[in-house]
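[AMINO ACID CHAIN]
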Amino acid sequence: MAALSAWFWNERFWLPHNVTWVDLADPAPGVEYPKASHLLSALPLALGIFAVRILFERFIARPCAFLLHIHATSVHWRATPNPVLEKVFTSITKCPDWRHLDGLSKQLDWDVRKVQQWFRHRRNQDKPSVLTKFCESMWRSTFYLCIFTYGIRFLWQCPWMWDTPHCWYNYPYQVLTPGLYHYYVTELGFYWSLMFSQFTDIKRKDFPIMFIHHLATVSLISFSYANNMLRVGSLVMCVHDASDFILEAAKLANYAKYQRLCDFLFVLFAVVFFITRLVIYPLRILNTTLFESWEIIGPYPSWWLFNSLLLVLQVLHVIWSYLIAGIAYKALVRGKVSKDDRSDVESSSEEEADTNRTNDRGVKMAFSLKAENGTNGTNGHAVTTKSWPQIRTSSR
């Protein structure tokens, strides 16, 4: 274990030339530098955030939903208990193809249409109510708004917010301030809580992708903290937080059946997303991490890794922006946001599902990006999800 730890924390990888961990271990009295051990405090904080979320959804979000006449809806049709079909549903596929349907039809001596109907009703039993999705989105919207507000207020007083070379002056001997510590640990704790809650949240088709996404986000935040790139890391987090709460607010409007407000908020989200991800991020953040840092501190191994990840992130921003632009255009032209085919449990028949796969393939790709979020409650339409800016989270 000692050898593995020494290999992982190799100074030649993590730190600039002529800097050692000893140099950062014993600062002057009253001065503290970031240490990897600080990140452990995010784990109990994540549990606390998860507990707050449960209380928030029950005592704040649900009453708000009731005021908007959003109630839990029961399933009108339940699948007839059948051990054979249930085993196929839970172990093999929830959406059997025609080969499976034909085989089950012969095995049970049922009409193919009846087998198909059973699977449709069984999927509907697992479909979350609009109330559940509203509460989940309200929690996320509230948290994103609060953390973005805190980040802006904190960074407004920081010199590196306005003059990015300050991210690298005297690096890595940059003092850890309480505000920066709280900002980082809270963001990290929230993403840990998302990893925990994924197992209790609405189950979606992109569960593995989003789990990897949250894990990658946790890794990137931890990486930048461990090698004291907190200043530029705080800018990255703030840029990615800017559009998230707008998207969740659009989903809330959708669940409450305020379609015009939903469309307006989604277009606003798209505009903010384009400005932050395609303008501010490359011109300010990538410029300082690639060029200003090169001139001030010079490259070293973890510097190359950090910038490689940020460049990959920019490529994803371009792809996501293209997909979001297509949906925003449809919202403006058709007067409504396109349906989210990616999330929750499918509720349409097999024929409808096949049609959706053919006609809405581009929309489905866009909604499959982010995480967090629900299909609609308004006239068959839905607002996209946190998977877009998750589009963030990969967005980290």
Q: What stands out?
A: DSSP finds 17 helices and no strands in the chain. The chain has a mean pLDDT of 82. The two ends are 30 Å apart (CA to CA).
